[in-house]
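Running this now, will post back.
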Amino acid sequence: MTISLSQLLEESLHIAWEFLERTGELGDGAEASRFLSEKIEAMIRRGERSRLALSNRAISAYQRFEVNSSTASTLGVRTSA
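Update: finished.
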C-alpha cells in the first residue's frame, strides 16, 4: 500500500503528537507542531518512509529540544527559534 507523502507527514505527526500529549511532554502547541512538522518533513526529504521511525525520531528530537530549552531558560540564556 502506498500513501502520499503529505499523508505520511500527517500520520507521523499525529503519532508523535498523541504520544507527547499522553505523557504530558507537549509544551506550547504551535511551537510543538512547527518543530515536529519540520523534523518529520526533513526526514521524509531524506527518504525515510516508516511512520514509526519518523514519529519516534521526531519525539526524541522534541524531548532533547525541550530539555535544552528548559535548561537554557533556567540559566537565563535566550534561545532562538
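The mean pLDDT is 90. More later if anyone needs it.
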